[in-house]
Write a structure and sequence with these properties.
The complex is a heterotrimer of chains A (about 180), B (about 240) and C (about 550). Chain B contains 6 helices and 10 strands. Chain B has about 240 residues and is an alpha+beta fold. The two termini of chain B are about 20 Å apart. Chain C has 23 helices and 14 strands. The chains are: A alpha/beta (about 180), B alpha+beta (about 240), C alpha/beta (about 550). The complex binds flavin mononucleotide, iron/sulfur cluster (SF4) (3 copies) and FE2/S2 (inorganic) cluster.
Chain lengths: ~180, ~240, ~550
């Protein structure tokens, strides 16, 4: 059976996933090696069980992210922090100098073009955590893929090593912040 | 000047008794990481990255401020030192607001270089996200305190080389900040000659030139060698350190 | 002034005092002033007037008598009776019943045979609470400045140093460095200009030994400094103390003026070629300014930040000149050693920790106050005999020595002799002499957190391990006390403690982790009780996936 791979988009800009798509023709190769069981690229609603490798983009910034992080950890053998926001908080954490209340007010009232309403409905947006934190602050992470975004080559290296059943030696092979 | 012989990482090395362990190490091609040290400025032993072990002595010493002793045996890269250096970089990463992706000196930053050197994968401590200020009131330069690692190189170059003493430290502990003159906007600091030296010696993107965008700025620090040599010898040349 | 004149002055003052039939000594140091001892003094004066005894009874404001918790204190010199909680009305009762009537006022009398007094041994504090610190004559009358006279007129500087070396005196500022050795280095260091500095910064929480000496017997410190200056060849001294000590500053200023007026400071002291002046420098109350290299910078008016040593101040100190820096209590030990000999001093205490030590007993203890005991005294004796044990029937748990730089000593070590080496062996330190007693109600993790918070605030911010490391240590301790930490956090705490200890630049950072390390060593179960388990993960049940 092919390894089951998931990719998740938490609080990030989706840049890491864009870079993933930049694998271009190597995506076809990847499709031969692995089965993509959950991802923003595919229409699957629930994070499945028995995932072999989970790539997680973005910081953990709201309660929904936090819940998702635990689900990922429960169901995945290997969790990879995918990109700088997941490893350090990066851009997603620049808001941390301000309170969650200030942030929401700024985005939904001060910067609103017309209808400025605070999203008070519990279901309208997920409640922000007091600060955005890297993934490893919430769950155990097995490896870190740096970069904002990580280059396709970095991603390819990490994935092909993992698909071959090896832990990628990212620190020496591909370490790049920002 | 007496020449002393001693061991470094098991090799025999020699140096003058008024040289530091750091200088002697470099002359012999032994790399010791540094941050607060910069050739041409006074040494303050503050960043603690250059700590080395001396056999038979409990206390670690900072190579940048320690003189050799005949027959001593110095180790510059033990497992313990590596661990401590990594923790120092971790502490620095957690202390400021470092978002490499949007920084002017991305890929030309000495804090990044240190993190690469210790192969920093992730930071075990919570990031502190201090509320710090950015001062863009100077006509040519910007001081972004979010990226400051408090190495005080700007303070020393401005005081020791330029002679203006525009910068100094304000506050204590994690309230420490680098302030201009009497803690006022840099643009209004009368002492500043706009020479730019502080900008060039700053290891990070805390001090940068206006008009530069992400990853554009590379800092050239060679000028210090010229000035310092010129002062000593009266010649406008850069004296290279032996062995480099 | 000549030696002859000094003796005459002493004689004259003794005569003046003997002209009174009795003297009432009222503590006028910070502790008792805070309990309104000004009223006590007025109470005595009024009552004495009422009885028409102004010419027979003198009322004297003195320095600290030691049992600060029971202040205001007053001592009737004639028969040595000591009274506690003396307010105005008690004062008039004492005058009416004790001084006039000849019977003691039982309710307020303190038993001076109590171990609190009987187990103490006063050398540094011998004049504290016995003389008026505002009058140099009183100090001279009890033999003051005779040691300086002896040193200058009878001894060579080398002999003074030799005597101090023989005494075995070690620095009371914390590190316990042998004083004779320090002076010898400064004496031998090349340079025409040398300095002597008295370190009266005293920044650790709970400590007020030095303040007390400065307030109660300032001349003792000036005399010690002058002897040090004579020994090392200095002609200028500085006393560095903090602005939070206004009374000490005031009394020192007065004392310096008086000493100058009598020719005991200034030029040609005791008609010799020895000149010595003392100036005051007031700090703004930063703990780190007590560290000697930071103190040197602060004296120059610069930011109080430590620098790496060597060079040590004794060779390269103030303005680059050889500089002796000694603690207040160290300097207060000098005159008696020169007076009575180094061998006498070496006979007190233990072979490696000679003499006495002042401790400030605070926390959960019956008798809070200042005590002076011979080195090597068992901890048990300090806590239970002198200190009277913990109040309200709680059980003794531990005592923190050395303040934020020290550690706790738990009850299994109660028989530990209190000296430099023994305290170090159990992971604590002598420090400057704070002793904070904890009882069964005290939470040790909270204690560690309290001291860490202090270090976080007081870190000068120069070096990374201390500036950022202590911050994370404090955050980890907070996480633990909130009940949110796991065993991993405690492991990280321990690792960071050792890293900060080994890599910080100065003593502040190097010792800041000590309270954590020592509570971990002796009370690890208190940490463990606060931990939550590390999360284990079971795979989701398919139907329960909520995403
Ligand atoms: C953070 C720190 C604070 C200190 N504070 C004091 C102080 O308040 N008073 C003092 O006498 N020594 C203090 N010291 C010790 C001094 O650096 C120095 O060792 C001492 O004054 C030497 O005097 P001594 O040899 O008489 O003990 C402190 C040291 C450190 C590292
Ligand atoms: S530009 Fe020159 S003078 Fe101005 S602060 Fe920087 S170093 Fe000092
Ligand atoms: S601004 Fe730059 S040079 Fe100055 S202290 Fe900060 S990091 Fe160092
Ligand atoms: S250990 Fe702390 S107080 Fe000492 S130099 Fe470093 S930051 Fe300053
Ligand atoms: S380079 Fe030596 S301590 Fe910073």
């Amino acid at each position: 059976m092919k390894p089951r791979v998931a990719s998740v988009w938490l609080s990030g800009c989706s840049g890491c996933h864009m870079s993933f798509l930049d694998l271009d023709e190597r995506l076809i190769e990847l499709a031969d090696m692995a089965e993509l069981v959950y991802s923003p690229f595919v229409d699957i609603k629930h994070f499945p069980r028995d995932v072999d490798v989970a790539l997680v983009e973005g910081a953990v910034s709201n309660v929904e992210n936090e819940e998702m992080a635990h689900i990922i950890r429960r169901n995945s053998k290997f969790v990879l922090s995918f990109g700088d926001c997941a490893t350090t908080g990066n851009i997603s954490a620049m808001r941390n100098q301000f309170s969650a209340g200030e942030i929401v007010r700024r985005s939904y009232v001060e910067l609103a073009d017309d209808a400025s309403v605070l999203p008070l409905e519990p279901t309208s947006i997920a409640q922000l955590m007091p600060s955005a934190v890297p993934l490893h602050a919430i769950i155990k992470v097995d490896a870190f893929l740096h970069g904002c975004p990580p280059s396709p080559d970095q991603i390819w290296f990490a994935l092909s090593e993992l698909m071959a059943g090896r832990i990628p030696d990212l620190p020496t092979a591909y370490l790049k912040y920002g | 000047m007496p020449i002393l012989t001693f061991a470094m990482n098991g090799h025999q090395v020699s140096g003058h008794d008024d040289e530091t362990l750091l200088q002697i190490a470099r002359q012999h091609g032994i790399h010791i990481p540094t941050l607060c040290h910069l050739d041409g400025l006074s040494d303050i032993g503050a960043c603690r990255l250059c700590l080395v072990e001396i056999e038979g002595q409990d206390k670690l010493v900072a190579a940048c401020v320690t003189k050799p002793q005949e027959g001593m045996s110095v180790h510059t890269d033990t497992e313990r030192l590596q661990r401590y250096r990594r923790t120092i970089v971790e502490l620095l990463a957690s202390e400021g607001n470092h978002q490499c992706a949007v920084c002017v000196v991305n890929e030309h930053c000495q804090l990044q270089d240190l993190a690469y050197a210790v192969e920093l994968q992730y930071v075990r401590f919570p990031y502190l996200y201090p509320k710090r200020t950015l001062d863009a009131t100077h006509k040519d330069f910007v001081m972004d305190r979010n990226r400051c690692v408090l190495c005080s190189r700007c303070i020393r170059v401005c005081h020791e080389v330029e002679g203006a003493h525009t910068w100094d430290t304000a506050g204590r502990s994690f309230h420490c900040t680098i302030m201009a003159d009497m803690d006022q906007p840099w643009g209004t600091a009368a002492s500043c000659t706009s020479c730019g030296k502080c900008v060039w010696v700053c290891p990070t993107g805390a001090l940068f030139e206006k008009g530069q965008t992400v990853a554009e700025m590379e800092k050239h620090r060679d000028f210090l060698k010229y000035i310092v040599t010129a002062r000593r010898t009266g010649e406008w040349i850069a004296e290279e350190e032996e062995g480099e | 002034m000549t030696l002859e004149e000094l003796h005459q002055l002493a004689e004259k003052e003794r005569g003046r005092q003997q002209a009174f039939t009795n003297r009432v000594l009222v503590c006028s140091s910070t502790g008792c002033i805070a309990c309104n001892s000004g009223m006590t003094r007025d109470g005595f004066i009024t009552a004495i007037k009422e009885h028409d005894l102004e010419n027979e009874i003198e009322v004297v404001g003195t320095g600290c008598m030691g049992l600060c918790a029971l202040g205001p204190l007053a001592l009737i010199e004639g028969d040595g009776r000591l009274y506690r909680n003396v307010d105005g009305s008690v004062a008039s009762a004492i005058v009416a019943r004790h001084i006039v009537g000849g019977e003691v006022v039982d309710d307020n009398m303190l038993d001076t045979d109590d171990p609190f007094f009987a187990s103490q041994m006063k050398i540094v504090l011998e004049h504290c609470g016995r003389i008026d610190p505002g009058r140099i004559e009183e100090y001279i009358a009890v033999g003051g400045y005779s040691a300086l006279a002896k040193a200058i007129t009878e001894m060579k500087p080398e002999e003074v140093i030799e005597e101090i070396r023989k005494s075995g005196l070690r620095g009371r500022g914390g590190a316990g460095y042998p004083t004779g050795l320090k002076w010898d280095v400064s004496r031998k260091a090349p340079g025409d200009q040398k300095y002597v500095i008295c370190n009266g910064d005293e920044g650790d929480p709970g400590a007020y030994m030095d303040r007390n000496v400065l307030e109660s017997d300032p001349h003792r410190v000036l005399e010690g400094m002058a002897i040090a200056a004579y020994a090392v060849g200095a002609n200028q001294g500085y006393i560095y103390t903090r602005a939070e000590y206004p009374l000490a500053i005031e009394r020192l200023k007065v004392a310096i003026k008086q000493a100058e007026k009598h020719g005991l400071l200034g030029n040609r002291i005791f008609e010799s070629h020895f000149n010595f002046r003392i100036d005051m420098r007031i700090g703004a109350g930063a703990f780190v300014c007590g560290e000697e290299t930071a103190l040197l910078r602060s004296i120059k008016g610069r930011r109080g930040r430590p620098r790496p040593r060597p060079p040590y101040p004794s060779e390269n100190g103030l303005f680059g000149a050889p500089t002796v820096i000694n603690n207040v209590e160290t300097l207060a030990n000098i005159a008696p050693i020169i007076d009575r000999s180094g061998a006498w001093f070496a006979g007190i205490g233990t072979p490696n920790s000679t003499g006495t030590k002042i401790f400030a007993l605070t926390g959960k203890i019956e008798h809070t106050g200042l005590i002076e005991v011979p080195m090597g005294i068992p901890l048990r004796e300090i806590i239970f005999d002198i200190g009277g044990g913990t109040p309200d029937g709680t059980e003794f748990k531990a005592v923190q020595t050395g303040g934020p730089s020290g550690g706790c000593v738990p009850k299994e070590h109660l028989d530990l002799p209190v000296d430099y080496e023994s305290l170090k062996a159990v992971g604590s330190m002598m420090g400057s002499g704070g002793m904070i007693v904890m009882d069964s109600d005290s939470e040790m993790v909270d204690v560690a957190k309290f001291f860490m918070e202090f270090c976080v605030e007081e870190s000068c911010g120069k070096c990374i391990p201390c500036r950022v490391g202590t911050r994370h240590l404090h955050l980890l301790l907070e996480k633990i006390t909130r009940g949110e930490a796991t065993a991993d956090d405690v492991a990280l705490l321990e690792e960071l403690c050792i890293m900060v200890k080994e890599t910080s630049l100065c003593g502040l950072g190097q010792s800041a982790p000590n309270p954590v390390l020592s509570t971990l060593r002796f009370f690890r179960e208190e940490y463990d009780e606060l931990l939550k388990p590390v999360l284990g993960y079971e795979p989701s049940k398919p139907e329960a996936d909520p995403s």
